[in-house]
Design a protein that fits this description.
heterodimer, A: 300 residues, mainly alpha, MetI-like fold, two-stranded antiparallel sheet, B: 301 residues, 0% strand
């Protein structure tokens, strides 16, 4: 009697309060997850609306005006756009071959696995060093070193682009390595079975198969380079001119913001907010494309 | 009988020597050269790290006196002083950032890993990744618009808010990944003995993932402590201690901004402090990276 009574009690449905608690917990988790999407939308709308006064003031001509003169309220960011694109381009030019070399070297069996893991970790550490520390090192070590044997005198495009290439190298190396190691081993075996050497297999089979991930990694690195602020601000010289020489000071959108925002007032703030919106849109497009390429890689 | 089908190796047109590796063939040489280049590039990639660490050790430790942890930044050309206020300011702002981002990040991670179905989770993961790619200076501009303009004051709150947004994607991603590593059987067993969803998550799954989640939070703290760009026009900088009477609604010093400010001035005493502060930041990053590497190396339940 007792036994069956307790058993039937145990088999009763859960009390309502417990079920509601359960539902509330799941909903709370969902709301916090939606909050991430909310933050992203919030940033987008806030940055866009902040720039509205300047957009109606300067129009699209802001993009191809090259004078930045707070005294006459003339604002244009052509030199900064030029500097942003050129510095990122030089950085990619250096770090793509080196990053791919690192990715291949660390995905083959050249080194014993333990040593390989340590080197992978060291390359990752390059990404963890704060950018202001790169800037500090660039000012006191890299620029004096470069000016010994080049026409470089003080901050300029070249040291900024060099440091930028060091900073984005780990992104390219790590994501390319992931892409290369996730290529099915059958492809390599088939290539070697047909008589390919190691490098023939790498260059003709493995790299093409991993290309979407590698390009995604390069795009992510480009996104980082375009938006990188501190190291570039400290090394590029912040001159609002377009000069084709890499030994001349230049400017980027991010360094323009870092340099002027805190002391700006009135129309200059509006112009800087407009510049921020342009940088945001550029990096957003690059990042979304990169994410699409990298996630396509993960589905294979 | 069948011998006519078996060719005499000596007579056949097939030359077995061609199976041997020919050390002077262009294909072999090409492979060797490419391997050499790849190895060289790997060494080239590590060199900057080694040089930077060597300089930080040399210049940073030389400038690291006990009073740098307790005293205020000195004026130009005056020896002595330190950056106690910047250490405290960084700690306060990273603390504010954690208070905001840890609960949101962990709950969002729980949703993604435990309760999500299909499309919505894919979208949120995608947006988390895009959010982590937004340049930190843009986050600074955002925090300036949201906090500094509405409160009409540069403050530790604005800086902490900006850092929270930078930490959020790291915490969501590490929580999501840490929870996914807990085997499905554990959840089934928990539900099998009659536990609710929240009991399963909070008492069974989450505790198993706690070490990995703590690792992710520590990594995000180290990253946030080194961030400079989002603090430049949210927290600004000050020569003085944080003021609690003002509820922190005033410019606040931080280690990262101190490195920037003192690196671009021509005064040697301040430059030395910049190296000392950079050394502290890098030690923080190195320690957390190494600890997280050790903690996540054992990826078993």
């Amino acid at each position: 009697m007792d036994q069956s009574y307790t058993n039937s009690r145990r088999l009763q449905p859960r009390p309502a309060i417990e079920r509601n608690l359960d539902k509330a917990f799941v909903w709370a988790a969902k709301i916090f997850a939606l909050a991430i999407a909310g933050v992203f939308v919030w940033i987008t709308t806030q940055v866009t609306f902040q720039a509205m006064p300047a957009i109606s003031e300067f129009g699209l001509g802001f993009l191809w005006t090259s004078s930045w003169n707070p005294v006459n309220s003339q604002f244009g960011i052509l030199p900064a756009v030029y500097g942003t694109i050129v510095s990122s381009f030089i950085a990619l030019l250096i770090s793509i071959p080196i990053g791919l070399g690192v990715a291949i070297f660390l995905s083959e069996d050249y080194l014993p696995p333990k040593v390989q893991r340590i080197i992978v970790f060291l390359v990752e550490l390059l990404a963890a060093v704060p950018s202001v520390v790169y800037g500090l090192w660039g000012i006191f070590v890299l620029i004096p070193f470069l000016s010994d044997f080049t026409p470089l005198r003080g901050p300029a495009m070249l040291p900024a682009a060099l440091i930028l290439s060091v900073m984005i190298l780990p992104t390219i190396a790590a994501i390319s390595r992931d892409a290369i190691t996730s290529v099915p081993i059958d492809l390599r075996q088939a290539a070697v079975g047909l008589g390919a050497t190691r490098w023939e297999a790498i260059l003709k089979i493995i790299i093409p198969a991993a290309s979407s991930g590698i390009i995604g990694g390069i795009m992510l690195a480009l996104g980082r380079a375009l938006g990188e602020t501190m190291a570039v601000t400290m090394l590029i010289g912040n001159a609002n001119t377009i000069n084709p020489s890499v030994f001349a000071p230049s400017n980027t959108i991010a360094s323009l913001l870092a340099n002027q925002f805190a002391e700006a007032s009135g129309l200059q703030v509006a112009a800087l907010l407009y510049a921020a919106l342009i940088l945001f849109i550029i990096t957003l497009i690059v990042n979304i494309l990169a994410q699409l390429l990298v996630t396509r890689l993960q589905r294979i | 009988m069948a011998s006519e089908f078996i060719q005499d190796p000596a007579k056949s047109s097939f030359n077995s020597a061609s199976l041997r590796r020919n050390p002077t063939s262009p294909r072999t040489l090409f492979g060797l050269i490419m391997s050499g280049i790849a190895g060289l590039f790997t060494i080239l990639a590590i060199i900057p790290l080694v040089i930077i660490l060597a300089y930080l050790l040399g210049k940073g430790i030389a400038a690291l006196r006990p009073e740098v942890f307790t005293e205020l930044p000195p004026p130009p050309m005056v020896p002595g002083g330190g950056f106690g206020n910047a250490i405290l300011g960084t700690a306060i702002m990273v603390g504010i950032g954690m208070l905001i981002s840890v609960p949101i990040g962990i709950m969002a991670g729980i949703y993604l890993s435990e309760f999500s179905t299909g499309k919505l989770a894919d979208w949120i993961r995608f947006l988390t990744n895009v959010l982590s790619g937004v340049p930190s200076i843009i986050i600074g501009v955002f925090a300036y618009g949201v906090i500094v303009l509405t409160t009409r004051s540069y403050s530790a709150w604005a800086g902490g808010f900006a850092l929270a947004i930078l930490m959020l994607p790291i915490i969501v991603r590490t929580t999501d990944e840490a929870l996914k590593l807990v085997p499905q059987e554990v959840r089934q067993a928990s539900i099998g003995v009659g536990a609710n969803d929240y009991q399963t998550v909070l008492q069974i799954v989450l505790p198993a993932a706690v070490p990995a989640i703590i690792t992710g939070v520590t990594l995000s703290v180290a990253r946030a402590a080194g961030e400079t760009a989002p603090l430049l026009f949210t927290a600004l900088f000050t020569q003085y201690w944080p003021n609690w009477n003002n509820l922190l609604f005033e410019p606040t010093a931080s280690l990262a901004v101190l490195v920037y400010n003192f690196a671009i001035v021509p005064f040697q005493n301040q430059q030395e402090l910049a190296w000392a502060a950079a050394f502290i930041l890098v030690v923080l990053v190195l320690l957390t990276s190494i600890i997280s590497r050790i903690a996540t190396a054992r990826r078993t339940y």
